Amino acid sequence: MKVLVPVKRVVDYNIKPRVAADGSGVETQGVKMSMNPFDEIALEEALRLREKGQADEVVAVTIGPQVAQDVLRTAMAMGADRAILIQTDAEVEPRAVSSLLKAVVEKEQPGLVSMGKQAIDDDMNATGQMLAARLGWPQGTFASRVEIADGRVEVAREVDGGTETVSLSLPAVITADLRLNEPRYASLPNIMKARKKPLETIEAGSLGVDLTPHLKIVSVAEPPERKAGIIVETVEELVQKLKTEAKVI
Amino acid sequence: MTALVLIEVENGRVRQASRSAIAAASHFGDVDVLLLGEAPAEAASRLSGIRRALHAPSLKHALAEQAAALLAGLAGSYSHILSAASSTGKNILPRLAGLLDVQPISDVVAIKDESTFVRPIYAGNALATVQSSDSVKIMTIRSSSFDPVSEDGNEAAIETLETPADDGKSRFVKLEQSQSDRPELEVARVVISGGKGLKDASNFHTLLEPVADRLGAAIGASRAAVDSGFAPNEMQVGQTGKVVAPELYIATGLSGAIQHLAGMKDSRVIVAINIDPEAPIFKVADYGMVGDLFEILPALAKAL
Amino acid sequence: MTQPQSDNTAIEREEMAFDVVIVGGGPAGLTAAIRLKQKNPDLSVCLLEKGSEVGAHIVSGAVLEPTTLAELFPDWKERGAPLDTPVSSEKLLFLTEKAALPVPALHLLMPQMDNRGNYVISLGAFCRWLGEQAEALGVEIYPGFAGADLFIEDGRVCGVITGDMGVNRKGEEKPDYMPGMILRASQTILAEGARGSLSKKAMNTFDLRKGADPQTFGLGIKEVWEIPAEKHRPGFVQHSFGWPLDTHTYGGAFLYHFGKNLVSYGFITALDYRNPWLSPFEEMQRTKQHPAFREHFEGGRRIIYGARAISEGGVQSLPHPVFPGGVLTGDCAGFLNMPKIKGIHTSMKSGIIAAEAVMEAIQTEQAEASSYMERLKSSWLWKELHAARNIRPAFSHWGMLGGALYSGIDSMIFRGQAPWTLRHRHADNETLIPAEKAPRISYPKADGKLTFNRAESVFLSNLSHDEDQPVHLKVQDMATWKNTNLARFAAPESRYCPAGVYETSETDELVINAQNCVHCKSCDIKDPDQNINWCTPEGSSGPNYPSGM
Ligand SMILES: Cc1cc2nc3c(=O)[nH]c(=O)nc-3n(C[C@H](O)[C@H](O)[C@H](O)COP(=O)(O)OP(=O)(O)OC[C@H]3O[C@@H](n4cnc5c(N)ncnc54)[C@H](O)[C@@H]3O)c2cc1C
Ligand SMILES: Cc1cc2nc3c(=O)[nH]c(=O)nc-3n(C[C@H](O)[C@H](O)[C@H](O)COP(=O)(O)OP(=O)(O)OC[C@H]3O[C@@H](n4cnc5c(N)ncnc54)[C@H](O)[C@@H]3O)c2cc1C
Ligand code: SF4
């Protein structure tokens, strides 16, 4: 079985995002970018399936500009066998991304798509579900455990009330939550070797998908700042302040 | 304009988060609600301000595949389809959007007009105002941003729906719920959270619970605490856990990483207890106490 | 498998061989890499950078003198080099607490400070651009991997060993443990910037500092501000000396307007300062309150914070830059022109020369790139550094005013050709006077708008550092710390460290918050008994400065 792992290049999670002074968006120029952490987890899961013998090929795909190649190189350094760049300089929203991915799925015919549950830039949490819908495949979102047996995949999902387990026929889409696994590093020898792994580039325009956003960003602003408060010395003082000043207890 | 809200019922009552979503939906004219599963529809029909309660009793486990298909059949009559930004809503509505080729809008915190909304991005470090050109707007609602409608103030008509056939691709296996008499995290008036600083699971219980009991508080956790097995995943607060905005949030032994702040910085009053005076959590705290939680928490339980 | 040096024995390591391995992706290392490939595209060149990407650890002013860039890429404009802001006007101010006296006829009195024809740049952005040029030429750049040790065989450096990953705080292997790798090289170019850790090892191993004056350093602490467009004066350059430093301390502030409404502000304090109560961080904060600086920040917001040491010693302090199997380039050797406060064009030049010398050594199969020194001496770089050599030491000898006076005389009368050379007498770790004899300094409290405390500052360095790794600031002996640092100097590291890494606990123990370290290297330099050793942490640890820095 082939596993397709879509990955996204996002502002590194260590970077404190800064809203551009003109309110047009968040500064991404000259800021460290890396693979969306949830996608690393999704990729790790795919690699583990391959190591267990349940998958035979792991293919990473990303949609973005030429530079987005670097996350594909990272994916291959972590262990993906090959990679596909769907190249476009346009800002693409999950709607367009899921359409493009559908085209890739139709070409690659994977048995499983393993992806992150959300990207930490737009925090949209939608692409996996939308892709599953477009393909008519079942979905296992917010996965914290994935097990494949008898042509089905069992997925434990982190839900509001606890953990829900579903069983899905294959092919299926799963979206990874934080606790699914701990992704491996890309080691230096593997990064070196990954330079030689195949990376295919496909023009997004050639896939016949309408990339025009349906959701326009009107403006981006910083949230109102919280003022730092005071330091109290004793528990008594704290309780007293909460009672008389803040009036919350 | 008419809106449809997918609602969730728990222990016979409509979840507060769903009632907040209805409040948001009322900006768009008449509101119908859709209830999935076997829970009696009466709870839904009593919700204040709604026009109709639609009920699909056969969709027992609210599996996204069937729920989205059902919603897609209803979508033609609505201008807006909403749900709480809950794990159920986030599972189903984007799938619906995929079926309709619509760009969904997650975690809406404010409504500017019928097609313009505000939502947090970058773990709440920025607020984006977005405008949708889709003919049906599909969105999930941050419950902390909208006052819930009342549970009792109506007798709306109930309509039972036929549901599409199940193709068996997705099957429910089980739900493991942690039992607790505490209030739900998202709706509790007071939340006390613990982080890595609690050191192990038994401290998590013995130190946090007495304080929570006295305050009637829900208990939350940082990701590091959940990862280390101190607390179950549903207690995680943050960018990728639950978003809460209680009257009082007490953060103990957690550093205040931006991903954690994303889930609690809209709380009205924040108290931080941390041994490290430079921990970032103090930057958002109204009251900070620098010291060892192993001494402070027992003293706090006693003083309350 | 090979048996590497020191504690690295007996570990199975993967190996890879290159013609040249370069340690450090600053201007020196990137320029050397580019030059190698320009001259001989067949050479395999590998460059390691400990930051998560090229530029992530770069801190500079920076006013760039574009001379070397034009040697490297005559067509730099067409290639889109990020030199967007030509210097438009310039001021050098002598500050008193309330007033600012401009030094008149600057280009005559202090020709080094004449910046006409130069550009205000972000060195971080410039290095990212150099990195792209290098990669396009086929240089293999590996960011996120530090050169952790020299790989020495038979008395010759044969490459470097990268850092181990996945070791916990106690030094035990975690499940994801990955030993570092041996990168073999015919020639290794060290380009680590001021106080490089492998450079230090090379200098000690091969006794390269013999006959040289001690190196002397400054600590540069910097902020980038974004200010309202109507107040932005692109290309405006201002330097200051005098207040708030005491007359024994060399240093001052810089302020440059550049880019899109950005202001680069920083303060350099020479690390041969004497008063252990001095805090370079607080000096930099309070200078912003001076009327000559304050107005520039009004209505703006601070967006980046960082710090880095700078080599100030000049030619007197240069080590012998060649050792068996490699060379030293840039600031890790000390090719910086201090009166100009410029080290970019000089480190780039040393990179070019090193590349050419190294290529010759490879061709002739020699262990030592012995032509490096001659090539250096016959270059403009040497002349420039030679002419500048007396200015910085004059300040240590005669204090701030005497130094300023001397520098005027040296430039106007001798034009740098004075028949004597002033020496650097002390290393920076030897200059502190006991705390009880030194006047305490009371610094104003941060206001949270113009001035800030260290914790909220370091937040703007975008640090990443997995805490569960060995502490990379190795204190060799805690008793020494207690007897010297604490008892005599009242724990000076708690003040000079710009990131608040060092604290003294209530029980008088040294607390090291290693995860805050911004890799400035000051503790390695200033620690009185040289008891603190800065080692490379896990790759990608440390600051993530965005472009603009
Ligand atoms: C993509 C992504 C998503 C994430 N999502 C989330 C999320 O949703 N929620 C979340 O919480 N995190 C999330 N994180 C993780 C986050 O970055 C932090 O790692 C995490 O929040 C740290 O948890 P902590 O504060 O408990 O642990 P630490 O950062 O280790 O802090 C422990 C704190 O305890 C204090 N302490 C220790 N001992 C004592 C004592 N005796 N008394 C008092 N104080 C003490 C310490 O001073 C320290 O400040 C996410 C990370 C990523 C990359
Ligand atoms: C505050 C300040 C202001 C300045 N202003 C100016 C100015 O206006 N004009 C000017 O011309 N010069 C200025 N300089 C000086 C100039 O920045 C330096 O001279 C120049 O950057 C030196 O270049 P370099 O390549 O030798 O070292 P660096 O720029 O320090 O680069 C060294 C690189 O090597 C990496 N590295 C170090 N050790 C290792 C290792 N072991 N393994 C892997 N990677 C490693 C570092 O992370 C870094 O990226 C200023 C310096 C400072 C600090
Ligand atoms: S610990 Fe040392 S190297 Fe790190 S920031 Fe502090 S002084 Fe600089």
Automatic annotation (TrEMBL), chain A:
Coiled coil start-end: none
Domain Electron transfer flavoprotein alpha/beta-subunit N-terminal per the UniProt entry, residue ranges: 23-211
Assigned keywords, A-Z: Electron transport, Transport
Transmembrane segments: none
Source species, domain of life: Bacteria
InterPro entries membership: ET-Flavoprotein_bsu_CS, ETF_a/b_N, ETF_b, ETF_beta_N, Rossmann-like_a/b/a_fold
SUPFAM superfamilies linked to this entry: Adenine nucleotide alpha hydrolases-like
Keyword Protein biosynthesis annotated: no
PROSITE patterns in UniProt: ETF_BETA
PANTHER family in the cross-refs: ELECTRON TRANSFER FLAVOPROTEIN BETA-SUBUNIT (PTHR21294), ELECTRON TRANSFER FLAVOPROTEIN SUBUNIT BETA (PTHR21294:SF8)
Family from the record: Belongs to the ETF beta-subunit/FixA family.
Protein name (Swiss-Prot/TrEMBL): Electron transfer flavoprotein subunit beta
Organism name: Bombella mellum
Organism classification: Bacteria, Pseudomonadati, Pseudomonadota, Alphaproteobacteria, Acetobacterales
Automatic annotation (TrEMBL), chain B:
Superkingdom of the source species: Bacteria
Keyword Coiled coil: no
Keywords: Electron transport, Transport
Keyword Lipid metabolism recorded: no
Protein name: Electron transfer flavoprotein subunit alpha
Pfam families xrefs: ETF (PF01012), ETF_alpha (PF00766)
Family annotation (SUPFAM superfamilies): Adenine nucleotide alpha hydrolases-like (SSF52402), DHS-like NAD/FAD-binding domain (SSF52467)
CDD domains: ETF_alpha
Family: Belongs to the ETF alpha-subunit/FixB family.
Electron transfer flavoprotein alpha/beta-subunit N-terminal domain span: 3-176
Origin species: Bombella mellum
Lineage: Bacteria, Pseudomonadati, Pseudomonadota, Alphaproteobacteria, Acetobacterales
